[in-house]
Write a sequence for this structure.
C-alpha cells in the first residue's frame, strides 16, 4: 500500500511552519545585515565627530589668538577716539603728534 499525501489540517499546518521558519530566517538575516550596516555608520560618525572636535579646537585657538592680537590696537583706537570726541585734542600730548 502506498500512502496518500496528507491533506488534513495538520499537514497544512506543517507546511506553514516551514514557510514561517524560512521567513523568520530571512528576517533574522536582514536584521543582522542592518545591524552590521549600522555598526559601520556608527564607526564613520565617531571618526567624523573626532575630526570635528579637532577642527573646533583649532578654531577656538585661532579665535583666541585673533582676539588677543586685536585687543591692543582696538583699545588704542577707542582711547584716541574718546580724546577726539571729548574735545581735549588741543591740550592732549598725544594729539600733537598728528
Amino acid at each position: 500500500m502506498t500512502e496518500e499525501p496528507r491533506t488534513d489540517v495538520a499537514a497544512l499546518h506543517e507546511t506553514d511552519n516551514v514557510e514561517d521558519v524560512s521567513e523568520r530566517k530571512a528576517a533574522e538575516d536582514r536584521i543582522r545585515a542592518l545591524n552590521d550596516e549600522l555598526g559601520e555608520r556608527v564607526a564613520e560618525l565617531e571618526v567624523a565627530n573626532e575630526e570635528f572636535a579637532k577642527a573646533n579646537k583649532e578654531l577656538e585657538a585661532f579665535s583666541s589668538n585673533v582676539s588677543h592680537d586685536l585687543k591692543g590696537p582696538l583699545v588704542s583706537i577707542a582711547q584716541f577716539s574718546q580724546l577726539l570726541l571729548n574735545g581735549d585734542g588741543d591740550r592732549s600730548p598725544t594729539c600733537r603728534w598728528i
